[in-house]
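For concreteness, we quote verbatim a single protein encoded this way:
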Amino acid sequence: MGMSKKKMAVAKLMIAVLIIGGILWTVFSGLTIGNWSFPRALDEERGIRQGLDLTGGSVIVFEAQVEGVPSSEEMNSAIGKIRARLSSLGYTEATVTKQGDRRIRVEIPSVSNPEEAEAMLGTTGKIRFVDYQENVLMDGTDEFIKKAEYAFSRIDEYSGAQPHVKLSFTDAGQKAFKEATEKVMTYDADSRVLFIMLDDTVISYPTVNKVIDDNAAIITYGNDADRKMVQEQADIINSGRLPFELKSVESQSIGATLGEKALSSSLMAGLIGVILILLIMLLIYRLPGLMACIALLAYIGIALLVFTILRVNLSLPGIAGIILSIGMAIDANIIIFERVREELALGKSVSSAVNAGFKNAFSAIFDSNVTTLFAVLALYWKGTGPIQGFAVTLGLGVVISMLTAITLTRFLLNLMIRLEIKNPKWYGLKALKEVKNV
């Protein structure tokens, strides 16, 4: 029975190491299985996005097209809605600032062609429902439209699946849309078309065959429509209508403000730091230190995996958030291991000391991480650009570090106990006595 437990523990340890190794291999080298592929974490097109300071990007200056000087409320509203549009596209590192009385400066990382962003950001986002005589039957204001969402499905029994935008109406919007379709139904059969316009562009023109009293409408773009474009249309509608039209008066591509070697230098510094941490943990805490090293490698792999999936924008403040979360992960392990050594010094068995160490350290670790998450939420809520990027990487890092420092480290240490590695010296007790004697 004893040998069976040992074999089971060895098998679990090997599986854990293989899984961690697989995660690290995937994030650093990518993975392809048949037609499915997962990109490398640092893949420029599909991996973690790099911030403006690391990879460069685009700078666009918009000017409000209004008579006189727009009010501060209108400018703040426009800035907020541009930020919402950028965030919906995943550009949390983008910065939007007021420039003078009527201009807005937008800096977007990883976008080398400014024209790509101008069309999406500069549009007013005004949705209108118009008849064939160009009479506005319904104005898609926030009063009428509750939400716009991208969907890919069949819209009727005669066509296949296609990308489209589904508009959800408020009660007032449902009533207004019903009245609009009632009006169209009074026209000749060939004129029963409802043109849906975004600003001055017709984006869809469905034929109305009956009065529609639903709380939703569908904007179609055809079977060959680009998914990204349709998603952008939904994002523009969701972000709300800008208080005025914006015209691009300046746009340029810029290089990395910190030089082309900024990222490689930061990664090298981080690698050296991680190696030093691993060595110190091994020297001081011995076997638990080794388990902490494995857990730290798992943390790095899982964090990069999550950042790649979410396509996090990474700038130097974001890298600082990752490094800080690594420090918190190591700090959690140090608290646990010190508690374990104290329990061993009291004469407890290794198994009891490990369980007691984790139990006694949990409240301190939990409290420090929760307070950090509160600070992260405040930074993300009130911050912009790089501040939000720092909050995203730190917040995700804290959550992942809790998982690896408490759950994975404990799992690995319990496997060591099942392998009958129970000499207190392997858990740093001798080093603790030496410190006390000094």
Notes: The mean pLDDT is 80. The longest strand covers residues 145-153. The chain has three domains: 2-43+259-437, 57-123+245-254, 127-239.
